[in-house]
Amino acid sequence: MTLGYWDVHGYPNFPGETTLIDELANAMGTSYKWPFGDGATWPWRVNDGILSVCRNHHYNNFQASEDVTVSWAEIKNEVYAGRPFVLSMLNGGTGNGHNKAYNHHSVTCMGCLDGDQDYVYIKDTWDRDIHYLAYGDWTAVMAVWVRP
User: Fold this and answer.
1) How far is Cα 147 from Cα 83, in angstroms, rounded to an integer?
2) Closest CA to 137 of 28, 145, 107, 126
3) Any idea what the Cα angle at residue 79 is, between residues 146 and 111, rounded to 5°?
4) Distances from the Cα of 142 to the Cα of 9, 55, 107, 136, angstroms
5) For the chain, first and last CA: distance in Å?
6) Per the omega criterion (within 30 degrees of 0), is the bond before 43 cis?
7) What is the pLDDT of residues 113-147, one digit of tens each?
């Protein structure tokens, strides 16, 4: 979803959705076989997979870096700069519009709401809607900042 955003914002060499998903899954080592067989991707393989796919489509200028100490200030900085990023959660809470928790799932963070309770606006692979989740509604989180 993060690269899909860049595809329509000045980087049109990426392939269509299904092909892009397959390329990313392959580059990230997403498991479709034993022992995990459930489409699991180790979070620390996301950045290398994104960079590999970017290079495959002649975007050598992209950067992707991991951050395991994700602050609210960093989230706001990326969002306000117009740079969506990957947020991989451990024991993630339930986003609005869902009846199950994110648990161990990666999503694209594309917005935020600053207030008495801070929220991240996210897109997940469960539907095409934008959802929100309270900042910190997870046990641990890792961000992959993606910047052209």
Assistant:
1) 7
2) 107
3) 115
4) 25, 23, 11, 12
5) 15
6) no
7) 998 999 999 999 889 999 999 999 999 999 999 99
C-alpha–C-alpha distance, residues 109 and 128, integer Å: 13
Q: The sheet that has 63-67: what strands, in order across it?
A: 63-67, 140-147, 85-92, 103-113, 119-123, 130-134
Per DSSP, the residues of 72-97 read HHHHHHHHHTT--EEEEEEEE-PPTT
Question: How far is 95 from 30, CA to CA, in rounded Å?
Answer: 24
The first and second tokens of residue 83, run together, are: 């740079």
pTM: 0.90
27-76: pLDDT as tens digits: 998 876 555 556 778 888 899 999 999 999 999 999 999 898 899 999 99
